[in-house]
Amino acid sequence: MNSVVAKSKEVTLLEILDRVLDKGVVISGDMVISVADVDLIYLGLKVLLSSVETVEKLRGSPFTSPVQEAR
Amino acid sequence: MIANTTVETESPEEFIEEIEKTQNCLPKKIDANPKTVEKGLAKLVLTLIELIKKLLEKQAMRRVEAGSLSDEQIENVGETLMKLEKKMDELKEIFGLKDEELNLNLGPLGDLM
Amino acid sequence: MKLYLYGIIDSSEQVKESIYGLEGSGVYNIPYCDIGAVVSEINQPIQKVTKGAVLEHEAVIEKLMENFTVLPVRFQTVIEDRDNLLLMMQSYYNDFKDNLDRLHNKLEFGIKVIWAAEKIRENIIKALKKGKQKKLEPDSLQGRKFMTEKFEKYKIDKEFRAKADKFIRVIDIFFSKFAAEKKLGKLKTENLLLDAVYLLEKSQEINFREAFEHIKSARPDFKYLFSGPWPAYNFIVLSKKSGILTDSQQTDLLDKVTQNRMLVGADSI
């Protein structure tokens, strides 16, 4: 069913966003230029997304789609 | 060889709903717009009062459970908490705030709420 | 040229295969001692957080995971230039090295479990009603009535949380034996019983997945989400909050603050 695939992609994206925006190594200091948005996580992860670009638009990538969605 | 990263679930919609709920728990940054400043500050103050109220209630409940409150004390504490709750409801209404808006996500202390 | 930082790896060698990152730029490793910072050159730090950029970022990290231990760096970390990057590496070297050693050969997996909170509460209320021996004397006093109602709710909540703890413990027992480290988020919402991340040795992945299948069949009424493998996003421990101050600078600053306190009078601070 189409909407199940769409929802699966959405939950995958939420999982990635949670890690990539909020976890991992956070380096602070003058030498780091971080985009303001990333610090506004409390607005809700999805609200931050300003455009819906698909993975297929990746240019010249010699590797396949990074994250497989649930079937 | 590492398999590609996957996210597997048979209930994506339910998880989306719950994950989004967990993300809306921190107060939004305080807007300096004078119209919303008042509401923003009210929210902050009421959230803190709500927190203290819940802590007091929890304490009271523990003592009721332990049987260490006299009848008179139960009546007095009950009346006080009742009045506080009524006042909170009034203030919430004046500032147009809902219960969910006053819920601080305190992380490991989250149990308090 | 500004440098977009993806992750820190446990190697000072070049990245062997071609990887492309944001803006389609080639990704390469800038070595520092025995570790390295994986970057790509970027013209404009992206002004907005876009789905495409996030996925591109994640894709680079997954590619790196195949051959290295990676400390993934937060999205949109851009360093002014190479010199600043090396300063940063110098500042964080011990932290990075410690983490790389600890996380070597390990993967992160995420488990989320949803339970039917409302149903659980209903059952608790039913059970409590059954156990009620006598009806309390008519509450003519308002305060007392209020307290009685609060106490009912309190008992239900307590039982609810106890049930949650019980289930979480059982689920955790299944997974713990294969995990080196873990972080459990309990009852983040009423329905989200568990939001956990486990750090495992690569060799334990199969056992871990098997354990997951067992849990699913043991409690088919719950809903499950399984994610991974991830690089160890949730298990990075940095002792430095900011990379700017060296140890001696920190000591100097602390001395100054202490002196000021003595001048002003510590009580008034």
Describe the structure.
The complex is a heterotrimer of chains A (71), B (113) and C (269). Chain A is mostly helical. Helix content of chain A is 35%, strand content 7%. Chain A has one domain (2-57). The termini of chain A are close together. By secondary structure, chain B is mainly alpha-helical. In chain C, 37% of the residues are buried. Chain C has helices at residues 51-65, 82-103, 117-131, 142-176, 205-218, 247-264, and strands spanning 2-9, 27-32, 35-42, 70-72, 77-79, 106-114, 179-186, 192-201, 223-230. Residues 265-269 of chain C have low confidence and may be disordered. In chain C, helix 3 packs across helix 4 (142-176). Helix content of chain C is 44%, strand content 23%. Chain C folds into three domains: 2-104; 107-235, Alpha-Beta Plaits, CATH 3.30.70; 240-269. Classes of the chains: A mainly alpha (71), B mainly alpha (113), C alpha+beta (269). Chains in contact: A-B, A-C, B-C. At the A-C interface, helix 1 and strand 1 of A face strand 1, helix 1, strand 5, helix 2 and strand 9 of C.
Describe the SSE topology.
The complex is a heterotrimer of chains A (71), B (113) and C (269).
Chain A: H1 2-22, E1 32-34, H2 45-48, E2 68-69
Chain B: E1 6-9, H1 12-23, H2 34-66, H3 71-95
Chain C: E1 2-9, E2 27-32, E3 35-42, H1 51-65, E4 70-72, E5 77-79, H2 82-103, E6 106-114, H3 117-131, H4 142-176, E7 179-186, E8 192-201, H5 205-218, E9 223-230, H6 247-264
Helix pairs in contact in C: 3-4
Poorly predicted residue ranges of chain B = none
Q: Report, as a whole number of angstroms, the end-to-end distance of chain A.
A: 10 Å
Quaternary organization: heterotrimer
* Strand content bin of chain A: 5-15%
Helix count of chain A equals 2
Global mean pLDDT of chain B: 79
Q: What's the N-to-C terminus distance of chain B?
A: 45 Å
Q: Which stretches of chain A are low in confidence, meaning pLDDT under 50 for 5 or more residues running?
A: 50-66
Dominant shape of chain B: flat
Q: Total number of β-strand segments of chain A?
A: 2
User: Which percent bin holds the helix content of chain A?
Assistant: 25-40%
Q: Counting H and I runs of at least 4 residues, what is the number of helices of chain B?
A: 3
Number of DSSP-assigned strands of chain B? 1
- Report the sheet-strand fraction of chain B: under 5%
H/E topology pattern of chain B? EHHH
Helix and strand composition category of chain B: mainly alpha
The pLDDT mean of chain A sits at 63
Computed structural class of chain A: mainly alpha
